[in-house]
Amino acid sequence: MPSVLVSGAGRGIGKSIVEHLATRGWDVIAGVRKRQDAAAVAQLNPQRDMYARHIAGVKKRIPVSQKLAVPAETVSAVAEEALTARRPRARYVVGVGPRLQVALMTNLPASARDRLLRRVSGQP
Ligand SMILES: NC(=O)c1ccc[n+]([C@@H]2O[C@H](COP(=O)([O-])OP(=O)(O)OC[C@H]3O[C@@H](n4cnc5c(N)ncnc54)[C@H](OP(=O)(O)O)[C@@H]3O)[C@@H](O)[C@H]2O)c1
Predict the structure, then answer these.
(1) Which residue, of 9, 49, 87, 112, has the greatest Cβ tally within 10 A?
(2) Residues lining ligand 1, CB < 6 A?
(3) Hey, whose CA ends up nearest to atom 37 of ligand 1?
C-alpha cells in the first residue's frame, strides 16, 4: 500500500481521511498539533500493533538520545564554519554520538552493524 501524509488530522476532513485510508490498509502519516489528538489518531493505525515493540524501544531510548544530543548552538557554529570555509567539506559530523556512529557504520561488517544498531535503538 502507498504512504500518505495527512495534515490537520486531529478533526474534521483530515481526521475522516485518516480513518478512511488507515482502515483500508494505507500507511498513513497523520499530522496533528495536540498530544491527545496524536494518541487518538494512532489508535486508527492497524499496523500499530505490529510495530508496538519497535515503538516502545524507540520511546525507551529517547532520554539517552536527549543526553547525547549536541546543543543547537554547537551545530549552528559548525554550519557557519562550513558556509564560510574556503574549501568546505562534503560532510560535517558534530558530536561524539554521531562521530561514533559514522565510525561504526564505516568499519563494522553489515551483520554486526545491524545487531549493534538494533540493540542501541532498542529494537526487538
Ligand atoms: N468542511 C467542508 O465542507 C469543507 C469543504 C471544502 C473545503 N474545506 C476546507 O478543508 C479544510 C479542512 O476543513 P475542516 O472542515 O476539516 O476544518 P476543521 O474541522 O476546522 O479542521 C481543521 C484542521 O486543520 C488543523 N489546523 C488549522 N490550522 C492549522 C495550522 N495553522 N497548522 C496546522 N494545522 C492546522 C486543525 O488542527 P487543530 O485541531 O489542532 O486545531 C484541524 O485539525 C479547510 O481548509 C476547509 O476550508 C472544508
Answers:
(1) 9
(2) 7-8, 10-14, 33-34
(3) 8
